[in-house]
Amino acid sequence: MSQPTSQVPGINDTELPKVVTELPGPLSQKWFDRMDSRVTGALGDHEAVPFVEAARHGHLIEDVDGNTFADHMSAWGASPFGPTPARVKAAMDAAWDRHGMQISAWQPNEPVYDLVELLTDIAPGRINRVEYSVSGTLAVEGAVKFMREATGRSMILTFGGQYHGEATYLTAGVSSDLSNVQVQRSQYVAGVVSIPFPNKFRSPFLKGPGPFDETMVLDYLEEYLLVQQVHPHQIAGLLIEPVLGEGGIHAPSQAFWDRLGALCKRWGWLLCVDEVQTCMGRCGEMFAIERWDGIDPDLILLGKSFSAGGQPIAAILGTDEVMANSDLHLGSTYGFVPAAAAAAAEGIRIIREGGVLENVMELERIFFEEMNPLKERVEQVGDVRASGALAALEFVRDKATIAPAPRFQYAVYQAALKRGVLGITQEGKWHYRLQPALTMPPSVFRDSCQRIAEAVEEVAANPPKEGHVLDIVAESTR
What global pTM score does this model have? Predict the structure, then answer.
């Protein structure tokens, strides 16, 4: 039975944001002046977030100058209920008082076993085993090892534009939709092949606007990659996000998943679904793959929202066939420490009690209701996309060519920030993203959408001059 939304933690905190100073404000600027000489150059870049957080309350971030911002970042998804709910903190504190720090992979303990039981209870399909981890990056690295061990094959197939973490190996191979993330930071590596992620709006093979048949990327896989570059029997498995996150919130069709599943069965490939950004209700289901029928994964990766806003934690879920006889020791000192496990378990219970998933789907509905009209009114709004509480606006120079408009996107981000909405941006990208807490009140979310729409209209009245995307990406690496 669904829990009334009034009982879901945080869902009635309906205070709206207010910006009362220039950004950065004087006190934020004082902090920047003191600290920028003490941190790395990257940490001293404050253009995207030009304020210093003083506190979080409800679904707002308050800065040291008294400005407040609607939080559509939610710690990149790791704070799924806004500031940590009291019951998550209570579970975490109780486990800490009983156990302190413990290496759970070596010393079994009750909070960890409780979480393992919960995970195997809610896991879809054939998934029935758990490996402990501490971050999404390490979970991905571990999954690659599982796939290679289980199949005796070396190659991993990935999809362009995905994000799988910041370790050297995966960052080098598969972890961004922009090349400037990798340049001068990592090397190319063997063992990874990639094809484009399915995209209805923008085809990697055809010019102009869609909608496109996104299964054409599988045509490319079957007719070119497997014929001329990699034999299918070299591939251990696929690493895929169910909804493309950093690359702009693209959700594949049922036809794509059906055909991909058939290829896995035909060639003996393992299907590893990276749900680090999409798990635990983010897309309106406990696992994002439950938005489609018949997806049968061999491995599922968890992180971010899995923590419930508690302590760092991640997991690799798998089948008997992959994990039961594994000799791998992934060796995470901090994987599933008791307090983190207790918090994660409480987060799962909050979702299972009802109200959270219903709220997520209401946020999706509101996003389309408020943003779809922009496609008719504004030439630069190319597409509007959402999967639960993951949403994006894609900006173009014009609707005839759909040439990307990254400078327009960045200007919209800044205009929205001045109106009290903290979204997600990156210079060089042409999509603007929102990732609110799963429990953000619909009234707060609708207000944010309306402020963003105002920002879009403002920028459209005097749009910035666009350069070629490659030039803009290159500028950010100088």
Answer: 0.94
